[in-house]
Each structure stands twice: as C-alpha cells, then as structure tokens.
From TrEMBL:
InterPro entries referenced in this protein's UniProt entry, alphabetically: AKR (IPR020471), AKR1C (IPR044482), Aldo/ket_reductase_CS (IPR018170), NAD(P)_OxRdtase_dom_sf (IPR036812), NADP_OxRdtase_dom (IPR023210)
Listed Gene3D superfamilies: NADP-dependent oxidoreductase domain
Signal peptide (residue range): none
Taxonomic source organism: Echinops telfairi
Alphabetical keyword list: NADP, Oxidoreductase
UniProt family annotation: Belongs to the aldo/keto reductase family.
Pfam families (UniProt xref): Aldo_ket_red
Protein's name in the database: Prostaglandin-E(2) 9-reductase-like
Source organism superkingdom: Eukaryota
Length: 323
C-alpha cells in the first residue's frame, strides 16, 4: 500500500500522510504493546505515527521505528512522526528541553511534527497532572504565544520539521495567528473529531486559514475509564454507521475514517489488533457518495468523549467555546 499519494500538503510545504497511526493506550495496556502495534502498523503500510510525551510510550514507539529502519522496511524520511509538548512544559524556558527529552527517548534526530498538546499550562515538575494536598490540579499561567516562539526556534534548529497545536479553539488559534512577529503559522490543529462531534465550524475556520485539522478519537476513542464517561454512546454501534457499513461492505470503523478523509481531515486510527490495523489502512479502497457524507454529517450531536475535565476551570480551557 503506497500512502505517498494519500498525503495532505501543510502550509510550510511539508506533506502529512492523510491516515495516521495513534499510539495512546489506556494504563492497563502494557507499553510493549505500543511497540508491537507500531511495528505491525509500519509493516502494513502506515507511515504517519502519532505519539506524545504524555502517552509515556515514546521509547517503545522509537524502538519500533528504528527496528523497521534497521530491517530495511522504511527509511527515516519515509516516516512522519508527531510528538506533543505536555502542559507542564509550556513555560518558554522549558519547551525546547521537553522536545529534547522526547527525541532522546525516541533516539531520533528530529520529529516531523511537534504540537502544543493543550493551551492550558500546569505547574512544572515530575507529575504529569500536578495536584495540591487537597487533590486540586495546580494550574500555571503561561502565554502560549511565547511558547509558540520557542517552537518556531525548534523548527529553525531542525528539531521539528513542522509545528502546530492540539485542542485549541478558534479564538486561541487566532491569538497565535495575530501574534506580532509571527514567523510560522501552525500547520495543524489536532482535535477530537468523529461523526458525533464533527467539528464542522472549526474545520471551516481552519481551512480558511490554511491549517489542517487532524482528528483524534475518530472511532469514538478507546473509552479509557479515567477520561471517558462510560455512559456516553458507543460511536461504532451507531445504526446509521452500521447500515452504511453493510451498504459498502466495510466495517463501521472504516466508514467513520473514510468520512474524515473525504472532508479533507487527516485522521488517526488506533488499534492493538493486527486484523484491525490491516483493516484501517483499507480506507483508501472505497468512496462514500455525497449523499452518504450528508447522512453522516447529520449524526453530529456534540458528544465530546474527552472533555479534559481536569482542566475545566483553567482560564485557557478550550472547550467552553462553541468551536
């Protein structure tokens, strides 16, 4: 499967494969699974690997990538690797060191894309989510536009080929876009996006600014008990997706992924199962009619599986805005 032809051009001239392989896993999944799954992903044709410092699996994912380079399956330049700046490193003096920590874990010289994970700074330190003695999350006050300048420097220094953001609303994106002395626009905004939360307004806004929308949770997330309300509807059980899956002789997951591809959204798919990993890459083998695209548009009900409730009272909490 040659994914070269299924890429989207970024506003800095680089290309991002339209289908990406997600590496986040719930705590109960052993980290070695991330390594095994990434190897399978590369073997079946995935070239876009999405990870993050906060996923706590960059050593394993880096090992998988390097082993596939070593055995001749791919060259480094064939792989598009994304990492993310965690919120405890948003202070400008910490941001570059965070990227260097990721590169050291990966044992790679550069990442292809580096994102600010959330616009909400937390207190720096060892803890991923720092809390006070009452169990209250400790916020930090950082101007993410100053953090952005450090990412621009990381791009200039060759540590990251492209830079972007994740979980930003349109107003927060505008703050960066309108920043005096802006050198590089964000190439993308990676957000939760699926038929129950289709982000059509944010997508239109991003398109108008030549920013690519990248969809995570495109299959309704892995329903990690720590973050996802277990009473929320299961996306892939939706009868409309089920009917379309029958019509096209595909799985509901492939219908949900194909929907994003046809909207010009770069989509991430996550699985630890070889059968599903092989299936997900078949998203380019069929096409939905414009009528069926409209039917899927009609499923939108603003269900956000990952509201990041630990950040909800942060002044920069992104999801109180409509888009």
């Amino acid at each position: 499967m040659d994914l070269k032809h299924h890429s989207v051009k970024l506003n800095d001239g680089h290309f991002i494969p339209a289908l990406g392989f997600g590496t986040y896993s719930p705590a109960e999944v052993p980290k070695r699974k991330a390594e095994e799954a990434t190897k399978i992903g590369i073997d079946v044709g995935f070239r876009h690997i999405d990870s993050a410092y906060a996923y706590n699996c960059e050593e394993e994912v880096g090992r998988a990538i390097r082993s596939k380079i070593a055995d001749g399956t791919v060259k480094r330049e064939d792989i598009f690797y994304t990492s993310k700046l965690w919120v405890t490193f948003l202070r400008p003096e910490l941001a570059q060191s965070a990227l260097e920590i990721s590169l050291k874990k990966l044992q790679l010289d550069y990442v292809d894309l580096y994102l600010i994970h959330y616009p909400t700074a937390l207190k720096p330190g060892e803890e991923m989510i720092p809390e006070d003695e009452h169990g209250k999350v400790i916020f930090d006050t950082v101007d993410f536009c100053a953090t952005w300048e450090v990412l621009e420097k990381c791009k200039d220094d060759g540590l990251a080929k492209s830079i972007g953001v994740s979980n930003f609303n349109h107003k927060q994106l505008e703050m960066i876009l309108n920043k005096p002395g802006l050198k590089y626009k964000p190439v993308c905004n990676q957000v939760e996006c699926h038929p129950y939360l289709n982000q059509s307004k944010l997508l239109d806004f991003c398109k108008s600014k030549d920013i690519v929308l990248i969809a995570y949770g495109a299959l309704g997330t892995q329903r990690d008990k720590r973050w996802v309300d277990q009473s929320s509807p299961v996306l892939l059980n939706d009868p409309v997706l089920g009917a379309l899956a029958k019509k096209y002789n595909q799985s509901p997951a492939l219908i949900a992924l194909r929907y994003q591809i046809q909207r010009g959204v770069v989509v991430l798919a996550m699985s630890f199962t070889e059968r599903e990993i092989k299936e997900n890459i078949q998203v380019f083998d069929f096409q939905l009619t414009s009528e069926d695209m409209k039917v899927i548009d009609g499923l939108n009900r603003n269900v956000r599986y990952l509201p990041a409730s630990f950040l909800v009272s942060h002044p920069n909490y992104p999801f109180s805005e409509e888009y």
